[in-house]
């Protein structure tokens, strides 16, 4: 059946709501229960699929399958505590659920209505059990916009997405708004691209629309090359329809009828959920011809990446989409002017897209009310490293790093001291104690010598040696530099070799000077963003942790601390 | 050696694959609407079918698409996901992403290499294991992470390495999940 109008969509929504009612109307007494089990990559690795199997089987033998529904959702964000099982409408959040706990959940909680306290999260600071998600410090300061449906709906069931208002924004845009109105709304919302650069999304759409060409494309950048970040993956796994809906809205606005999702081949679960979602969207007519009974046609296909970080860069991505080596091109022309097969192409990031449907539904003002003056809305961060609550967090722009690390992240494990946090992945820099109270947004992070990037946030404690960390990042960029330009190809290699010389205790003060000089040279002369930003970890660790560099030069036996990095690349190195 | 060697160019240089596999690849290529821009897609498919992209397979694709073999090889060598060597029965992917690194992935990698006596991208003599470094499996919450075939092991400690290896040793090729 194809949905031809908003009224028809609304009818489907009304009947779909019953399936999610226990999750939405906690106050309305109901016999029905939903058991939400996390089906994100982290929890799946801890047997959450088997938990679902056992739950379903137990409920069946107890004759409760009718009233109790088991739902496999996307990531809840609190991956450190996985596998996570949440029971609604009771609003009880169980953590670290093992296979042997499942029987107790069914017999005690479901049958007798008694909470299994043993499985609740214990707040380490107050040493008390916390019953609901809302009470946990991990969730208290979060604001979920892009992740709104992750951990709430079954990503493989389009009706659950519709029950929560899904595809209404697309219907609204197509039947009630002109293309310019859509673009105007996105511009007014202040949404900036979440892929790293922070370019205003509405403006990019406008530029693409203005190009005179019959053929245009919209591309979703799901390459996510930043090692240590998994937000795009979680969105695609937990809420693929929001990305599909957003791409259709964007395509309408810029005048494209074909879309591509460029996704890493290493993300099999995201690929499978996205494929399922696309099939369902086609069946209901949200992709295909004459969407919502209008003359707008649009469809999406997948293209697989093949493991090259530089392919996240938009011009390289387009070359890769065309089946070539993923080497970047000079800009201008920008993809919005001349992209896929020479046609105007709008490339946006997954998280950027995930924000679009809510902006259209709830309005630009609603979105612009969140965040700081120049960075509106929220940002998803992948919090990892030496931190208690590893996971995915979404916070309003303007929150401080201290709040993220110490309130949401629960501080540093094992009583160790905080040392630094690297934001922005390999392109970013370290931030130390003194800047922890800076409100986070695109501009402030640049000002304190780092950047937003895609949102990887790696916390380091006193055991980490910062020269080794810089060396780790440099080996990454050296490996990943495509070699197209000389500063990128040779510069990153020399930088890495110099760092290696330093950490193996063979360097002199003159080498430190040379390192600094070369770092700036590579930064200023490389062709694309990859190697232009590659020296950032060196520059920022030299600035903040100069004594650690000195220690390697002046005292070879200086304790190096954990994280001592043994390079994989032995070519040309004497160690 | 300064003299050119005599070689028999008609003799295949590598282990031959069955005709069915080539047929499977050929029918995939024939099913494409257009081969324009489809090289990477075809290579993905070929690697699915053959397990790796041998010289012969690369040449087969080049001829089929009417493009130079060098172009195919240029693409294959650019992307780390493509491999030109056969891998062992089990692939041990050790995550070398930042989140895993700061939680000690390098020590885990060292232990695997020491126990199996191979470096990354190498295969053990018995053909059982291949070690690969990967960049972020996307389960950073469980760092350090090791993925053997499709199974993800989270929060791996150096002491766990022997157990993981043994799980796959004991049962030879027949381990699942
Ligand atoms: C080396 C490099 C790697 C990049 N990797 C990614 C990536 O993995 N995902 C992404 O969305 N953007 C990545 N970008 C940014 C893209 O080039 C592009 O700016 C972005 O996809 C635009 O989308 P947005 O405007 O929604 O942020 C990368 C840029 C560079 C220079
Ligand atoms: S800067 Fe680096 S990644 Fe970019 S073109 Fe040059 S070598 Fe390639
Ligand atoms: S994977 Fe389950 S909470 Fe993230
Ligand atoms: S860094 Fe290892 S899984 Fe992400």
TrEMBL record, chain A:
Keywords: 4Fe-4S, Iron, Iron-sulfur, Metal-binding. GO terms for molecular function: 4 iron, 4 sulfur cluster binding; metal ion binding. Gene3D superfamilies: 3.10.20.600, 6.10.250.1450, Glutaredoxin, NADH-ubiquinone oxidoreductase 51kDa subunit, NADH-ubiquinone oxidoreductase 51kDa subunit, iron-sulphur binding domain. It comes from the Bacteria. Residues 467-512 form the NADH-ubiquinone oxidoreductase 51kDa subunit iron-sulphur binding domain. Belongs to the complex I 51 kDa subunit family. This is NAD(P)-dependent iron-only hydrogenase diaphorase component flavoprotein. It comes from Desulfallas thermosapovorans DSM 6562.
């Amino acid at each position: 059946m194809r949905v031809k109008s908003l009224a028809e969509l609304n009818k489907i929504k009304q009947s779909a709501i019953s399936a999610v009612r226990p999750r939405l109307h906690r106050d309305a007494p109901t016999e029905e229960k939903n058991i939400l089990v996390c089906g994100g990559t982290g929890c799946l690795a801890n047997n959450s699929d088997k938990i679902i199997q056992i739950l379903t089987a137990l409920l069946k033998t107890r004759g409760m399958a009718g009233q109790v529904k088991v739902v496999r959702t996307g990531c809840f964000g609190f991956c450190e505590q996985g596998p996570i099982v949440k029971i609604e409408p009771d609003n009880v959040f169980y953590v670290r659920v093992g296979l042997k706990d499942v029987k107790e959940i069914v017999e005690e909680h479901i049958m007798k209505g008694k909470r299994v306290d043993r499985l609740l999260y214990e707040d380490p600071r107050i040493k008390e059990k916390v019953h609901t998600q809302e009470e946990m410090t991990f969730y208290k300061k979060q604001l979920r916009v892009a992740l709104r449906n992750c951990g709430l709906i079954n990503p493989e069931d389009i009706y659950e997405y519709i029950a929560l208002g899904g595809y209404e924004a697309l219907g609204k845009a197509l039947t009630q708004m002109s293309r310019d109105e859509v673009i105007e709304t996105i511009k007014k919302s202040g949404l900036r691209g979440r892929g790293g650069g922070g370019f205003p999304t509405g403006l990019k759409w406008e530029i693409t629309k203005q190009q005179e060409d019959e053929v245009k494309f919209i591309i979703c950048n799901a390459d996510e090359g930043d090692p240590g970040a998994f937000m795009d993956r979680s969105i695609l796994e937990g809420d693929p329809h929001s990305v599909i809906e957003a791409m259709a809205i964007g395509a309408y606005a810029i005048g494209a009828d074909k879309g591509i999702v460029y996704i890493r081949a290493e993300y099999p679960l995201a690929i499978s959920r996205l494929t399922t979602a696309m099939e369902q969207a086609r069946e209901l007519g949200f992709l295909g011809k004459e969407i919502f009974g209008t003359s707008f046609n649009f469809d999406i296909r997948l293209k697989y990446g093949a493991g090259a970080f530089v392919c996240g860069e938009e011009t390289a991505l387009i070359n890769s989409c065309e089946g070539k080596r993923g080497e970047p091109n000079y800009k201008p022309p920008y993809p919005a002017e001349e992209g896929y097969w020479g046609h105007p192409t709008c490339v946006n990031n997954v998280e950027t897209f995930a924000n679009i449907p809510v902006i259209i539904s709830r309005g630009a003002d609603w979105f612009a009310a969140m965040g700081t003056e120049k960075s509106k809305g929220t940002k998803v961060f992948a919090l990892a490293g030496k931190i208690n609550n590893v996971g995915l967090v979404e916070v309003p722009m303007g929150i401080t790093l201290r709040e993220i690390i110490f309130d949401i992240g629960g501080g540093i494990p094992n009583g160790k001291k905080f040392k630094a946090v690297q934001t922005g992945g390999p392109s970013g820099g370290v931030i130390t104690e003194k800047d922890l109270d800076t409100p986070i947004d695109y501009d402030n992070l640049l000002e304190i010598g780092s950047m937003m990037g895609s949102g990887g946030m790696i916390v380091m404690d006193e055991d980490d040696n910062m020269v080794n960390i810089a060396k780790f990042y440099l080996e990454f960029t050296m490996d990943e530099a495509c070699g197209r330009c000389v500063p990128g190809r040779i510069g990153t290699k020399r930088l890495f070799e110099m760092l290696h010389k330093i950490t193996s205790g063979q360097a002199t003060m003159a080498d430190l000077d040379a390192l600094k000089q070369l770092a700036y040279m590579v930064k200023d002369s490389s062709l694309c963003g990859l190697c232009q930003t590659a020296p950032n970890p060196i520059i920022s660790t030299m600035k903040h942790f100069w004594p650690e560099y000195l220690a390697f030069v002046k005292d070879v036996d200086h304790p190096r601390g954990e994280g001592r990095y043994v390079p994989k690349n032995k070519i040309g190195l004497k160690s | 050696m300064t003299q050119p060697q005599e070689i028999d160019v008609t003799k295949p240089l590598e282990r031959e694959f069955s005709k069915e596999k080539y047929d499977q690849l050929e029918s995939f290529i024939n099913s494409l609407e257009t081969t324009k821009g489809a090289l990477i897609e075809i290579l993905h498919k070929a690697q699915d079918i053959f397990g790796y992209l041998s010289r012969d397979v690369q040449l087969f694709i080049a001829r089929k698409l009417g493009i130079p073999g060098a172009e195919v090889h240029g693409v294959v060598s650019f992307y780390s996901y493509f491999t030109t060597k056969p891998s062992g029965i089990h692939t041990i992917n050790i995550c070398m992403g930042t989140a895993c690194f700061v939680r000690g992935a390098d020590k885990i990698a060292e232990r695997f290499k020491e126990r199996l006596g191979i470096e990354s991208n190498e295969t053990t003599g018995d053909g059982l294991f291949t070690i690969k470094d990967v960049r972020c499996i996307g389960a950073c919450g469980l760092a350090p992470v090791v993925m053997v075939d499709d199974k993800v092991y989270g929060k791996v400690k150096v002491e766990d390495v022997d157990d993981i290896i043994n799980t796959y040793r004991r049962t030879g090729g027949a381990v699942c999940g």
